[in-house]
């Protein structure tokens, strides 16, 4: 019965609008709702060029939400796990481009991935987590590994592998550690080439 009342109320409201309202182009600076993927709802924020965008799942819970400014993604966009309780991903945008922190969470709300983006490319610290502990850590520059790359033993949490990168290729000392933390292997790389000796 409630659904019927909502449908009738929406029909009455829509019937009162001028017939050319659907054909009107989006205002300058605002996103045209037709340009968004199916299922996204756009709400204007009064007194602002910003718009709130929401996508709901079949149960009506929020599946994704974020802001548009001048028709471009801006700020944090949050995608939720099924059921809408915990975020699955938080992506940060500036003027429609992925910039800043990117986070992924498991279905229990625990952090599983942390990364930093600049102009849609990995740029800065990156880390993969398991049960709150780092599994892998790295640093990126302009989408390529650049700096120290670390892997940890899942069982002990001790450092297992250490490698150095420069512009996406191995450059520097590579070390592999035992579970007790002793160096088991040490190799030197220069511009991606393993050095003999």
UniProtKB/TrEMBL annotation:
InterPro entries found in the cross-reference section: MORN_2
Pfam short name (any one): MORN_2
Segment forming the signal sequence: 1-21
Gene3D superfamilies: 3.90.930.1
Statement: the UniProt record of this protein carries the keyword Disulfide bond: no
Protein keywords: Signal
Record-linked SUPFAM superfamilies: Histone H3 K4-specific methyltransferase SET7/9 N-terminal domain (SSF82185)
Protein name, as recorded: Toxin-antitoxin system YwqK family antitoxin
Species for this entry: Phaeodactylibacter luteus
Native organism taxonomy: Bacteria, Pseudomonadati, Bacteroidota, Saprospiria, Saprospirales
């Amino acid at each position: 019965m409630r659904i019927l009342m909502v449908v009738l109320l929406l029909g009455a409201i829509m019937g009162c609008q001028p017939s050319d309202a659907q054909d009107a182009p989006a205002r300058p600076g605002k996103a045209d709702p037709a340009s968004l993927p199916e299922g996204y709802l756009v709400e204007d924020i009064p007194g602002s060029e910003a718009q709130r965008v929401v996508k709901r799942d079949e149960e009506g819970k929020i599946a994704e939400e974020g802001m548009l400014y001048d028709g471009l993604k801006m700020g944090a966009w949050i995608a939720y796990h099924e059921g809408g309780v915990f975020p699955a991903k938080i992506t940060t945008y500036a003027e429609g481009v992925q910039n800043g922190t990117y986070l992924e969470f498991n279905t229990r709300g625990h952090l599983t991935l942390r990364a930093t983006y600049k102009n849609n490319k990995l740029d800065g610290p990156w880390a993969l987590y398991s049960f709150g502990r780092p599994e892998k850590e790295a640093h990126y520059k302009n989408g390529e590994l650049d700096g120290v790359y670390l892997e940890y033993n899942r069982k002990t949490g001790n450092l297992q592998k250490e490698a150095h990168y420069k512009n996406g290729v191995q450059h520097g000392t590579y070390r592999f550690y035992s579970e007790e933390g002793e160096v088991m292997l040490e190799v030197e790389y220069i511009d991606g080439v393993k050095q003999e000796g």
